[in-house]
Amino acid sequence: MTSPSSQKPADKKAREHDPDVGTYRNPAGGWGALKAVGQHLLHSRSPATNARSLLKLNQPDGFDCPGCAWGDPEHGSSFEFCENGVKAVTWEATAKKVKRDFFARYSVTELKSWDDYRLEDQGRLVEPMAYNAETDHYEPIGWDEALTLIADELKALPTPDDAIFYTSGKACNESAYVFQLLARLYGTNNLPDCSNMCHEASGVALGDALGTGKGSVRLEDFEHAEAIFVFGQNPGTNHPRMLGTLREAAERGAIIASFNPLHERGLEKFADPQKPLEMLHNGSHRISSHYFCPKLGGDMAAVRGIAKALFEREAGGETVLDHAFLSEHTEQLEAYQTLVEATPWGEIEAQSGLTRAEMEKAAELYARSNATIICWAMGITQHEHSVPTVREIVNLLMLRGNLGRLGTGTSPVRGHSNVQGDRTMGIFEQPSDELLDALEARYKRSMPREHGVDSVAAVAAMRDAPGKVFVGLAGNFTRAISDTFVAEAAMSQCRLTAFISTKLNRSHLITGEKALILPCLGRSEIDKTGGKTQLITVEDSMSMVHGSAGINRPASRHLPSEIALLTQLGEKLVGSEAVDWAAMRNDYDVIREHVAEVIPGFDNFNERVRVPRGFWLGNPTAERTFPTESGKAVFSDAPLPKDVMHQRMAAREGWLTLQTMRSHDQYNTTIYGYNDRYRGIENGRQVVFLNKADIERLGVSAGQWVDLVGESDDGVQRRVEGFKVVAYDTPAGCAAAYYPETNPLVPLSHKGEGSHTPAYKSIAIRLEPSARIA
Ligand SMILES: Nc1nc2c(c(=O)[nH]1)N[C@H]1C(S)=C(S)[C@@H](COP(=O)(O)OP(=O)(O)OC[C@H]3O[C@@H](n4cnc5c(=O)[nH]c(N)nc54)[C@H](O)[C@@H]3O)O[C@H]1N2
Ligand SMILES: Nc1nc2c(c(=O)[nH]1)N[C@H]1C(S)=C(S)[C@@H](COP(=O)(O)OP(=O)(O)OC[C@H]3O[C@@H](n4cnc5c(=O)[nH]c(N)nc54)[C@H](O)[C@@H]3O)O[C@H]1N2
Ligand SMILES: [Mo]
Fold it and tell me: How many domains does the chain contain in total?
């Protein structure tokens, strides 16, 4: 059976690019980064404004970088940005605009044939637009009319649970608070967010193990760590400011051990573009002292191997475990130890792809360090067994008491700049009773108690029951979620889709019966809602909450803020009896007063957030307090994954496991360009990285064009066409390609156990020669 997934990918333009494949030998950062900064400033068509805004990036009196969620140092330099932060800012602060004549010129069907780069590169959205199905064009609509349409469509639904309110982690705390309040007063917990596709497994696992779902480290911990283990993360591209932190640690002599199936340049060598002397002398610094290359999905076994080696050393008479910590603060150690001892080395080696000697080496490094931090990102969280893998990482930290001491802790490095804050503000489809009780007490209205849909369940809901209303606060839902064509078909069955966005993207083209695009201010812009210069706030990966105020002139003086739009929608949808939406709109301090009353940890929010660099929300783990049922940190004794889908599928002759990842020139579904400098790729994105032995075994050759074909338990064949084979240093059986072009290959049902995050990093595929000829 063939599904709509076997259609050609819409990215015709990208397929016309013929990628050049080379080798990058320089350190990450360096002159290449500076050159890229210059190019992106020029491309934005307002280089002077943008150069000025960079000086205000991540500064106490400036705005938070819309790039990643890495923390800001307390005693920062006058530059606190990186190459990819520059791309994020200049991409938003472009002088190009998408006006009504653009939509008059191009039909939606025509725009669908454009690639993601070209769509967003048209510039900033500045006018509200409504889809006209008869003409197949977006046409101008008034602001008031558009918001009334959303409210009317929502009110007309048979039940509030037929509405879906999606949030991407770009939204600030104030927008997020208002958005969840509006959805819940209206009557639903259907608040899926990008976290569902990202660090959900970290939140679930940390919550189960330690009673707190957030990471425990702060930036100063990195200054005191003796070892930093980095699993499944590519900070050179995705958290470049982290390289500065790692570099300082390396310079002090800290051990940095990376676990990654790819040799990521940023984890190997870094030249800091912000250190003029280093730049002049073409110097650089090593980052990782040790580099391990597990197989995709092999980390749980790798960590278990390290634990096994520790137990063996302990049995041999050494003291490597922190017995005081273990007996005072943990439970279930015995069950874990029994399981680890019963797991044979052979199984651990086969699953991890590492040798026993390598894992013993890693154990030695770990045993030698008196203070260890473990960092991880999507290479850990986007598998079927991500929750048990994060639990295994926590087990390892607990064995040596690496929690709640200076220089130790858990560091799930978050993605979107405010993804963590959005959750803190209540964007969650499974709200706690405490949150709902607090909302009820504050607003004197009953809150919906039934849990809502997450991102994957939202697609299933739209697919199975047409006629939903989808409201998106930032993001690009159909492009980010798995099973692209299934998601697109599901979304187009909605009675209304409405997106609050800064740039044109593919989700806008997957129109329901009715569809709206509502443009808004970006974070770099001055927000004068209510005649007053407004401040917004964000929370970084290390639970630091701080203010952010844009400094650029808005792309259009008619552009409302997200909060202006959401509060007006609130007025129309639920009225102003329970909430004075206008007061919130006119002064965001009022929203923060509400937050202070409802969300724990935000007392005196308005005063505390005006202190330069903001305040720390605190973290029980960092204080060795574990709010689990027993009050102790809990060891997990989950078996290594057996018979998970990708293993079953990929174990067949001719099959591979594919990970889908980011290039250096993209921010999630936002494509800044066609180069992936550190991996030696130029002028294209349709590449598949393969091990040399696999290339021979599968009878293809480097440079050949292939289609990637996937299959799942549902028997539906999934395919994306025209990828150039690149020979690359990665373990046999493992392949890599870029997201989002490969999302049609990820079946909707292929997701993490307990997290429901699409398993974007372990997709079973095979190759077929492509009709495309080089
Ligand atoms: N410039 C830029 N910055 C970004 C983003 C962006 O797109 N562009 N996105 C933001 C967001 S939302 C997020 S979540 C983060 C993402 O940050 P990352 O998690 O660094 O993003 P990915 O590109 O998905 O990279 C995954 C890394 O994990 C490795 N990996 C994949 N599978 C496995 C595995 O099974 N085991 C191990 N050990 N490693 C594995 C890959 O080789 C790769 O190095 O970055 C944020 N920052
Ligand atoms: N195959 C595969 N799929 C993945 C992943 C993967 O590694 N592999 N990663 C997953 C992860 S970690 C994540 S977080 C998701 C990301 O999913 P999303 O967060 O939904 O996607 P983004 O690409 O970040 O959203 C980009 C859009 O946000 C809008 N935008 C940007 N800034 C603003 C703003 O300030 N305000 C408003 N209102 N709109 C704004 C713009 O219109 C832009 O087009 O993708 C997931 N999908
Ligand atoms: Mo993410």
Answer: 3
